[in-house]
UniProtKB/TrEMBL annotation:
Top-rank taxon: Bacteria
Keywords: Iron, Metal-binding
Gene this protein is translated from: hypD
GO terms for MF: 4 iron, 4 sulfur cluster binding; carbon monoxide binding; iron ion binding
Pfam families xrefs: HypD
GO aspect biological process, one term: protein maturation
Record-linked InterPro entries: Hyd_form_HypD, HypD_1, HypD_2_sf
PANTHER family reported in the protein's UniProt record: HYDROGENASE MATURATION FACTOR HYPD, HYDROGENASE PROTEIN ASSEMBLY PROTEIN HYPD
The protein's name in its UniProt record: Hydrogenase expression/formation protein HypD
Protein family according to the UniProt entry: Belongs to the HypD family.
Length: 364
């Protein structure tokens, strides 16, 4: 299949690996931001095929993983209300709160539904005018346009029974926070191709210039990822920073102007807490004042809920590239997909789930 098979071609992959081995003369640590890229890297064994002096660490680019615990607890509190329908993507329903997840709440009688789009949640609101319908909207810039459009459309139609519990975050501030951290190990980034398809890569250029690092927008297939790793290593070996686009068939410098327009119309930038990391300044999106009537946090008065994380979960260190999942003492023992401590073991894009699924441990 065009644009699939050619990016899974073993001959091209071997040639790129050979070139990486030739170019990489020093030790380098590269972070892939996106959880989808993490799973592709482990599924295809790329982490084990790279030369030992090129190490990949896994970033906070899993939207389910970085959604703060208080958002889950607020969603659970809303779901427990009578005449309320709580909707979200399937992964979010499995993320553990302090005592249960949203699937457990549904088993106890709450009306909790899996949807594939916020516009589907909007239709549920139209079909159930006597009930409050809430969409738990999480994600990076990839999901923000659709979440914004649902609010925009609800306002346009005058729907009064629809709201969103918003937990939108953005990639560049997270990069800045990691690069500013005293324990930072990251020397270059593979940027998430789907985020760049929306936002472009212009916003990464100031980050690359300020911190002197290469940032390479990358796809998700093996050849995409190896090509991006090669470009990153070439820049590192040459002592160069900047942004080099390795996903040109999808990503442009300016991104998708219409998607960015609707985001900016509905959302504004604010400080945001990230699960396991803490508050990152100006890293999130919240509803603008003219759309605050669609803010479920305020509508249901759940903003005061602020639970504590388990001290046994070290997902924050995993998300910042300080720790490999298999180095966590609880990994694969107390913490498994069946008994997860945190979202990184639950999400289909979580690094801990990827290590567990693809049998990576500290001895491999």
């Amino acid at each position: 299949m065009k644009f699939i098979d050619e990016y899974r071609d073993p001959a091209r992959a071997r040639a790129l690996l050979d070139r990486i081995r030739q170019v990489a003369r020093h030790d380098w640590t590269i972070m892939e931001i996106c959880g989808g890229q993490t799973h592709s890297i482990l599924r295809n064994g790329i982490d084990q095929l790279l030369p030992p002096n090129v190490q990949l660490v896994h970033g906070p680019g899993c939207p389910v993983c970085v959604t703060p615990l208080e958002t889950i607890e607020r969603a659970l509190a809303i779901a427990a209300r009578p005449n309320t329908i709580l909707t979200s993507f399937g992964d979010m329903l499995r993320v553990p709160g302090n005592s249960k997840d949203l699937f457990m709440a549904r088993s106890e009688g709450a009306d909790v539904r899996v949807v594939f789009s916020p516009l589907e949640a909007l239709q549920i609101a139209r079909d159930n005018p006597s009930k409050e319908v809430v969409f738990l909207g999480v994600g990076f810039e990839t999901t923000a346009p659709a979440n914004a459009m649902a609010v925009h459309q609800a306002a346009r139609e005058g729907l009064t029974n629809f709201s969103e519990l918003v937990s939108q975050v953005m990639v560049p501030p997270a990069m800045r926070a990691m690069l500013s951290s005293p324990g930072n190990r990251v020397q270059g980034f593979l940027a998430a191709g789907h985020v760049c398809a929306i936002m472009g890569y212009e916003e990464y250029e100031p980050v690359a210039a300020e911190f002197g690092v290469p940032i390479v927008p990358a796809g998700f297939e093996p050849v995409d990822l190896l090509d991006a790793i090669l470009k990153t290593v070439e820049l590192l070996e040459a002592g160069r920073s900047g942004v080099v686009n390795a996903y040109g068939r999808v990503v442009s410098r300016e991104g998708n102007p219409e998607a960015r327009r609707v985001m900016q119309e509905v959302f504004e930038v604010a400080d945001r807490p990230w699960r396991g990391i803490g508050v990152i300044p100006a890293s999130g999106l919240v509803l603008r004042p003219e759309y605050k009537r669609f803010d479920a946090e305020k509508r249901f008065d759940v903003g005061h809920i602020a639970p504590q994380e388990s001290p046994l979960c070290r997902s924050g260190e995993v998300l910042q590239g300080h720790l490999k999942p298999s180095d966590c003492p609880a990994f694969g023992k107390e913490c498994t997909p069946q008994t997860p401590f945190g979202a990184t073991m639950v999400s289909s894009e979580g690094a801990c789930a990827a290590y567990y699924r693809y049998h990576r441990n500290s001895n491999t």
